[in-house]
Amino acid sequence: MGYYRRLRDLREDHDLTQQQVAEYLHMKQPQYNRYERGLRDIPSDVLIALAKLYHTTTDYILGLTDQE
Question: Which of 16, 50, 52, 64 has a CA that sits 20 to 30 A from residue 44's CA?
């Protein structure tokens, strides 16, 4: 599973919209959408912020582990 699939699953599991996540990350929704679709690599600072938002690890988001 690609990291982009995990991003979408985590967002949906937390009942958030792409717009809400983008606002949390201080970016526009189309930019976040490109991360979630796998069109752009996620910068480390964004990856860390997403891990904090979802109370998980960066390894889980990147698919290096299946343990949240």
Answer: 16
DSSP structure string for 13-47: HTT--HHHHHHHTTS-HHHHHHHHTTSSPPPHHHH
What is the domain count for the chain? Answer: 1
* Contact yes or no for 58/51 (Cβ under 8 A): yes
pTM for this one?
0.91
Give domain status of residue 7, yes or no. Answer: yes
Whose tokens are 């982009």? That residue is 4
Range of the domain at 7: 3-62
CA-based radius of gyration for the chain: 11
